[in-house]
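Sequence only, no structure available. Ideas?
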Amino acid sequence: MPHVLRPGENERFKLTLNSDGRSHPVENLLSIGTLVCGLVAFGATFFPGGHVISSWVGALGFGGGLYSQYISATTAERTLNIVGIVASFVGVALGIARGGFIP
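Reply:
I predicted one. Tokens follow.
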């Protein structure tokens, strides 16, 4: 069973979202977009006027992440989606708590 955790003798380790061997450009783009929106929404909460950015980008990332999770094809995509959805939710919640969607 140790061969499952590390690549074989001839194989090199590669980080990829396409673990099934097929290309999923739309799903990959949505997964990465969800993660970026979540990180921006969460990061914007640390700035004094960032509640507007945090609220809007967090809501966009949360909704887009749910759709991306629905159409995802691989486990790696689902992992990025969950991290992005959680970060977006925390970002939008903190953004609303600090002032909401309107400046």
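DSSP finds three helices and no strands in the chain.
Hope that gets you unstuck.
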